[in-house]
Amino acid sequence: MRQSLYFAAMLAAAMPTFADNQKRPPIIDMHMHGRTSISLDENGQPRARGCMPQPCQVAVPPMAQSDEDVVPLMLETMDRYNIVLGFLSDRPDRVKKWIVESPGRFIGATKFDPDLNVDDLRKDYESGAFLGVGELGPLYWGISIDDPRLEPYFQIAEDFDLPVLVHLQGIGGPTKAFRIRTGHPELLEEVLRRHPTVRVFLENAGFPFFDEMLSLMYMYPQVYADLSTITWIVPRPLFYDYFERLIEAGLDKRLMFGTDASGSPEIFGEAISAIESAPFLNAKQRRDIFYNNAARFLRLSDEEIAAHHER
Ligand SMILES: [Zn+2]
């Protein structure tokens, strides 16, 4: 496995709180994807992660230099930061591959795709292959979350009592059909009324729709949120501004750590460091966001929690 000294130095720099010989407390990553290959830039080199706004001012070099690096480096980096559980969303075939690669470490979930056969999908859930639903990101197709095409996914979540990851916010990957207005968190309200028992969590706490998220989370206690891509894709002061307002609003028990890492292991250290360095958080809030809130949302058993803490 190729890994330059530069990366080792970068990773060390991204770990401000814990020395290598000090065991870090467990972390749950509520937002991961199952990419198994690298992407190349116009010069045929491994592509560095993107950022907003364009032009991207941050150049974080990619750790994985070949497709063979991706899975081992992702798992190795999760070990390094003691990420004990990951909510892994992707195409069904990819998710199954990752679960085989590291049994017990992932909650497998199937992302929304209008071309997916929902009857086959239901069979996968009946067989117990997946324990989560999502990421549901219909705005990449310009589709609204309350569209009937999403209904089978929410019905599966209700029937099997599974958590659902929803991508509703004002930013996302650059697809042609992406429409900001289909990312409006208020669009979820009718779905929540139709499926009141379903536990839903929204990527990036609906960034930057703060007011709408506040209404949604105050009115619907079953709604949680992750802090994933915004820990690294937008300028840090902007992330902290949004994050601090959520904390001031009293939502520290409903926010969960995530990375949105997809074949990019360098993101784990960046995302963790963003939470660890947030000056307005106390130690209890930090642990809640890294682990306790997700453990409650996922309804982990006392035994699972004890095992994660090696008690
Ligand atoms: Zn995602």
State the gist of this model.
By secondary structure, the protein is an alpha/beta fold.
Q: Which helices and strands, and how do they pair?
A:
Elements: H1 5-13, E1 27-33, H2 67-80, E2 83-90, H3 92-101, E3 106-110, H4 118-126, E4 132-136, H5 151-160, E5 164-166, H6 189-194, E6 200-202, H7 210-219, E7 223-227, H8 236-248, E8 255-257, H9 266-276, H10 283-297, H11 302-308
Parallel strand pairs: 1-2, 2-3, 3-4, 4-5, 5-6, 6-7, 7-8
Bound molecules: zinc ion.
Zinc ion (ZN) binds at residues 31, 33, 135, 260.
Structure notes:
The radius of gyration is 18 Å and the shape is globular. It has helices spanning 5-13, 67-80, 92-101, 118-126, 151-160, 189-194, 210-219, 236-248, 266-276, 283-297, 302-308; strands at 27-33, 83-90, 106-110, 132-136, 164-166, 200-202, 223-227, 255-257. It is α/β, with parallel strands linked by helices and 311 residues long. It has one domain (61-308): TIM Barrel. Residues 1-16 have low confidence and may be disordered. Strands 1-2-3-4-5-6-7-8 form an 8-stranded parallel beta sheet. 37% of the residues lie in helices and 13% in strands. The protein binds zinc ion (ZN). Zinc ion is lined by residues 31, 33, 135, 260. Residues 31, 33, 135, 260 line the site of zinc ion.
Descriptors for this entry?
311 residues; alpha/beta; TIM Barrel; eight-stranded parallel β-sheet; 8 strands; 37% helix; 13% strand; disordered N terminus; binds zinc ion
